């Protein structure tokens, strides 16, 4: 099974030319349509029906065509990353352009059909084959934080295993998600004849999400988003793969390489202005190295706020809980803004190139318990490493999502790994290392923690099938 990269690139360039000729972003294509605007629908029933028809086509098509479809999505994301990343930032108005672009480039490394496998057992009674089959149509919810990258990642994982998908994007990132779907479907159709491998709701709502959750034509759900949509998916009467919330802590002990720790925290927490669910959200550092670590942060692109400035930023970022014992209310207008913008709101001018704000707090500051998504990280003094791990466990809230430690003490690292029990556990590096960005392993934009699948890949979206032949086919 081989794909011709030059032929695929030619198709992608032809589609891009047609998209440019039609008058730009989001307008109707001049090319004849196929069951919707190249996969963009206004009705859930129609979107699901089209995805079901597409899944039948996919199973009756060749594996070579399937591989072409995946490569087309990779190439569109890679070669058009600057244009599409800019579109996403213009629509969502959160995050950083350089990282929007980088996330689309990263799609080329998302695993595809090479992850699929067949297992065989042979013996006196014959041969048994275990294969991993598709579910059919997967209902996917994508977040505003990584709208098109999540959709493209899901496409590669799900189509590689023989599924198609119907997407209800976050309304704040629906325009770029729909543009991606149009481009993917048009290029795939021209190269393979396959239509609507991904369909999407052009005007997504809570009602359309609920309709997908409960649709008889959708046997499996994959949700990447906040706590509310995660709960809704888990309440549906079908299997759901859910990427839920996180509040990743970092522990830094007295043995750590502080320059590396500071650099890693900046890289991870500043990435796309801390929109990553795996991003460093709070740091627990032992007292003996605390001041030195704070100084190191300033040498790697951070800007330290004093106590008064931290208090000012906190008052802008959070309102008091609406009920006793409740959560502080996050000011969503600050999500994903640049560090310089946040600093300017409290009257602070930061040097050019500042990536992250940071400052000392105690555990009562709402930046510590809340999964805020902005480039400010609170630092909390701890008596020792055990105290830091204890606080990390408390403020990760049992999400079992992601945690990090900087230490040269293997016993401390082992202890934290056991106590935290998180899906992702990074030692001596930034959070992205857990997803192959600076570390080993493969990447994904859906980390299924509540339901246990972890870092999703094509095998995540399959069901087990066994075929047994009695008395024959063992030729040894």
Please describe what this structure looks like.
The protein is α/β, with parallel strands linked by helices. The chain folds into 2 domains: about 40-245 and about 455-465, Aldehyde Dehydrogenase, Chain A, domain 1, CATH 3.40.605.10; about 250-440, Aldehyde Dehydrogenase, Chain A, domain 2, CATH 3.40.309. The protein has helices spanning about 5-20, 45-60, 65-80, 80-90, 95-105, 145-160, 175-190, 205-215, 225-235, 260-270, 285-300, 305-315, 340-345, 385-395, 410-420; strands at about 40, 120-125, 125-135, 135-140, 165-170, 200, 220-225, 240-245, 250, 280-285, 300-305, 320, 330, 355-360, 375-380, 400-405, 425, 445-450, 455, 460-470. The strands form 5 sheets. It has a 7-stranded parallel β-sheet with strand order 11-14-15-10-9-16-17, with helices on both faces. A 6-stranded parallel β-sheet has the order 1-6-5-4-7-8, sandwiched between helices. A 3-stranded antiparallel β-sheet has the order 2-3-20, with no helix packed on it. Strand 5 (about 165-170), helix 7 and strand 6 form a beta-alpha-beta unit. Helix 1 packs across helix 7. The radius of gyration is 24 Å and the shape is globular. It starts with a helix and ends in a 6-residue tail after the last strand. Mean pLDDT is about 90; it is low at about 25-35. This is Succinate-semialdehyde dehydrogenase (Acetylating).
Give structural attributes.
single chain; 476 residues; alpha/beta; Aldehyde Dehydrogenase, Chain A, domain 1; Aldehyde Dehydrogenase, Chain A, domain 2; 2 domains; seven-stranded parallel beta sheet; six-stranded parallel beta sheet; 20% strand; globular
């Amino acid at each position: 099974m081989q794909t011709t990269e030059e032929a695929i690139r030619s198709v992608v360039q032809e589609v891009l030319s047609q998209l440019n000729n039609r008058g730009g972003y989001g307008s109707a294509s001049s090319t004849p349509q196929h069951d919707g605007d190249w996969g963009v629908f206004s009705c859930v029933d129609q979107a699901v029906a089209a995805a079901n028809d597409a899944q039948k086509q996919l199973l009756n098509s060749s594996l070579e065509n399937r591989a072409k479809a995946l490569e087309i999505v990779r190439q569109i994301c890679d070669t058009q990353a600057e244009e599409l990343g800019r579109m996403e930032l213009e629509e969502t108005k959160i995050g950083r352009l350089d990282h929007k672009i980088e996330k689309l480039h990263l799609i080329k490394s998302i695993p595809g059909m090479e992850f699929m496998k067949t297992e065989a057992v042979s013996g006196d009674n014959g041969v048994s084959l275990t294969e991993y089959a598709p579910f059919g149509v997967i209902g996917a919810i994508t977040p505003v934080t990584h709208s098109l990258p999540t959709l493209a990642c899901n496409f590669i994982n799900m189509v590689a295993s023989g599924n198609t998908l119907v997407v209800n994007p976050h309304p704040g990132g629906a325009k770029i998600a729909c543009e991606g779907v149009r481009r993917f479907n048009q290029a795939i159709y021209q190269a393979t004849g396959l239509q609507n491998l991904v369909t999407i709701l052009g005007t997504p709502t809570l009602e359309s999400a609920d309709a997908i959750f409960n649709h008889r034509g959708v046997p499996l759900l994959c949700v990447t988003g906040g706590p509310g949509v995660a709960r809704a998916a888990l309440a549906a009467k079908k299997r759901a793969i859910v990427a839920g919330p996180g509040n990743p802590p970092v522990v830094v002990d007295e043995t750590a390489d502080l320059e590396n720790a500071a650099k890693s925290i900046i890289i991870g927490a500043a990435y796309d202005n801390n929109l990553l669910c795996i991003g460093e959200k709070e740091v627990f550092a032992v007292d003996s190295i605390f001041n030195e670590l704070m100084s190191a942060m300033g040498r790697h692109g951070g800007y330290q706020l004093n106590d008064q400035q931290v208090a000012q930023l906190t008052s802008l970022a959070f309102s008091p809980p609406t009920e006793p014992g409740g959560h502080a209310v996050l000011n969503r207008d600050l999500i994903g803004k640049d560090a310089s913008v946040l600093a300017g709101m409290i009257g602070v001018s930061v040097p050019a190139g500042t990536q992250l704000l940071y400052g000392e707090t105690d555990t009562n500051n709402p930046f510590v318990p809340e999964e805020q998504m902005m480039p400010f990280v609170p630092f909390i003094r701890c008596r020792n490493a055990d105290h830091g791990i204890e606080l990390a466990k408390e403020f990760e809230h049992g999400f079992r999502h992601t945690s990090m430690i900087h230490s040269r003490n293997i016993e401390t690292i082992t202890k934290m790994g056991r106590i935290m029990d998180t899906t992702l556990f990074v030692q001596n590096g930034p959070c992205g290392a857990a997803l192959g960005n600076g570390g080993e392993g493969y990447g994904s934009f859906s980390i299924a923690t509540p339901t246990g699948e972890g870092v999703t890949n094509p095998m995540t979206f399959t069901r087990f099938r066994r075929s047994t032949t009695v008395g024959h086919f063992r030729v040894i």
